[in-house]
Design a protein that fits this description.
This protein is mainly alpha-helical and 387 residues long. 67% of the residues lie in helices and 0% in strands. It contains 15 helices and no strands. α4 packs across α8, α4 crosses α10 and α8 packs antiparallel against α10. GO terms for molecular function: DNA binding; sphingosine N-acyltransferase activity. Pathway: Lipid metabolism; sphingolipid metabolism; Sphingolipid metabolism. Keywords: DNA-binding, Endoplasmic reticulum, Homeobox, Lipid biosynthesis, Lipid metabolism, Membrane, Nucleus, Transferase, Transmembrane, Transmembrane helix.
Length: 387
């Protein structure tokens, strides 16, 4: 273990040339540098945030949902059947024709009856609008509060106005209490998201979001240990700037305030494009790649940190393209037909059985009551937070 620890914390990887861990271990009185041990405090705080979230959803968000008349939908439960339940949980939730024919022979059921059972069973697990509203209200509240805290803190910081300050006297940069609380709170929140994934709505991209949260935690932890907190705080603030707007748009969508929902989505998209495609590459990447090279020079962990930021920028481009694609479809068709990113707000596609007469009636009503160019579909709002 000692050899493994020595290999992992190799000074030649983590620190600039001619700097050792011993140089950072014994600062002057009243001076504190970031230490890896500080990150452990994020774990109990994450449990505390998770507990606060449960209280918030039950005692604050749920009454708000009642005021807005957002009720829990009652779905028809599937008839208990051990054979079909085993197939549903162990093999597939949407059986193909081969499975359907085999089950039909085994149970002596009509194929349509089996299809109906699987449809009801999927919808049985589908979360209610009220549940989604409460989750989004919690995320909206946190994102808004942490963004306000971050922007107020950074407004008084030198590196907010001159990014070269991120690298002067590096790595001997003092850890202030405000910066510590900002970092540990963000880290704790993402740990709480990791925990809550196992109790939240089961989303289609569970694994993808799990990896996303893990990557976020790793990047925050890496920059903390490496004392790149100044530029790291800028990165966090940029990402927090649009997250609360997306959650606000979801809340408006669940409450059926469609025009407000459309407006918030447009504002979210504009801020997302500006922060991810303009500010991040021309402000953040400029200082991490060029200004830092000029002031402190490259070293192994510097290369890794910048590679991670470049990967993040690639994701920004992909997400921006998908958001623009949704908006373009909305303008051309008058509504959003499908969220190209991921349907992560529900565990199954919304399915209903319709007769030919009902389909004709639906088509007729669409002609009379169109969306008039608004983002009339709820699909765009079915997205992860967190970007």
């Amino acid at each position: 273990m000692a050899a493994l620890s020595a290999w992992f914390w190799n000074e030649r990887f983590w620190l600039p040339h001619n700097v050792t861990w011993a140089d950072l271990a014994d600062p002057a009185p009243g001076v504190e540098y970031p230490k890896a041990g500080h990150l452990l405090s994020a774990l109990p705080l994450a449990l505390g945030i998770f507990a606060v979230r449960i209280f918030f959803e039950r005692c604050i968000a749920s009454p708000c949902a009642s005021i807005l008349q957002i009720q829990t939908e009652l779905s028809r439960r599937a008839q208990p059947n051990a054979v079909l339940e085993k197939v549903f949980t162990s093999i597939t939730k949407s059986p193909d024709s081969r499975h359907l024919e085999g089950l039909s022979k085994q149970l002596d059921w009509d194929v349509r009856k089996i299809q109906r059972w699987f449809r009801q069973r999927r919808n049985q697990d589908k979360p209610s609008t009220r549940t989604k509203f409460c989750e989004s209200m919690w995320r909206f509240t946190f994102y808004l509060c942490i963004f306000i805290y971050g922007i107020r803190f950074l407004w008084q910081s030198l590196w907010m106005w001159d990014t070269r300050q991120c690298w002067y006297n590096y790595p001997y940069q003092v850890l202030t209490s405000g910066l510590y609380y900002y970092y540990i709170t963000e880290l704790s929140f993402y740990w709480s998201l990791m925990f809550s994934q196992f109790t939240d709505i089961k989303r289609k991209d569970f694994l993808i979001m799990f990896v996303h949260h893990l990557a976020t935690i790793s990047l925050i932890s890496f920059s903390y240990v490496n004392n790149m907190l100044r530029v790291g705080s800028l990165v966090m603030c940029i990402h927090d700037s649009s997250d609360f707007l997306l959650e606000a748009a979801k809340l408006a969508n669940y409450a059926k305030y469609q025009r407000l929902c459309d407006f918030l989505f447009v504002v979210f998209g504009m801020i997302f494009f500006v922060t991810r495609l303009v500010i991040f590459p021309f402000w953040i990447l400029n200082t991490t790649l060029f200004e830092s090279w000029e002031i402190i020079g490259p070293y192994p962990s510097w290369w890794l940190f910048n590679c991670l930021l470049l990967v993040l920028q690639l994701l920004h481009i992909i997400w921006s393209y998908l958001i623009a694609r949704i908006a373009f479809k909305a303008i051309m068709r008058g509504k959003v037909s499908k969220d190209d990113r991921s349907d992560i707000e529900s565990s199954s596609e919304e399915e209903t059985e319709t007769t030919p007469r009902e389909r004709l009636k639906t088509a007729s009503s669409r002609g009379e009551n169109g969306s008039n160019g608004h983002f009339g579909s709820k699909s765009w709002s079915q997205n992860h937070n967190n970007w």
